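Ticket #4471: structure export looks truncated?
Reporter: QA, pipeline team
Priority: medium

Steps to reproduce: submit the single chain below to the structure queue and open the exported record.
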Amino acid sequence: MTRPGLGVVGRRLVQFLLDELLVFVPTLLLAIAVIWLFHPHGPGLLTFLEVVVYTMLALDFVGLVFVTVWWPYRHGGQTPAMRWLRLRIQTLEGAHPSLGAFIVRDLLMLVDGFAWGLAGTVVMLVTRRRQRFGDVVARTVVVHVSRSADQAAVPGPDGDFGAVAGAELALDRADVGLDRRQ
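Actual output as written to the record:
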């Protein structure tokens, strides 16, 4: 197969921002509500604001781990934004990644996120499969999935956010061990 186009990099950047907003906005609204309802008057205000900010950061961290590790592990390799943008995480062999692979990907976001995400973007642009460093180490790839005819655009009332069939995997015969000429 040919090298994936640059469009998948753009989709991944938009997906990352959407997932971040999905966690950050409710956390920020909760912090604003707590400050508005419970703010003390006087010398304890600065300490109160520090506690709210640190609590907000901790909740944001837990929310991001939930959205980037647990959610895709339990929902076919897709975060909520990946589902909206028809992307999916899978192993190089096309299987569903293990929980450990999702954790490795998330931990290495520290490397990929260097310089406001520039490091991860550059790595995606230069790797053959458009992988960021976390994907390379975890042996995963993000693929574009086509919407099948029997899949609704919006999940049904049962809340099924499962995987989408028909991935377009950017592997050639040598990558999956079918080509013995090497």
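Status: closed, not a bug. The export was complete when the record was re-opened. Leaving a note from the reviewer for reference: The beta strands are 87-91, 140-145, 167-168.
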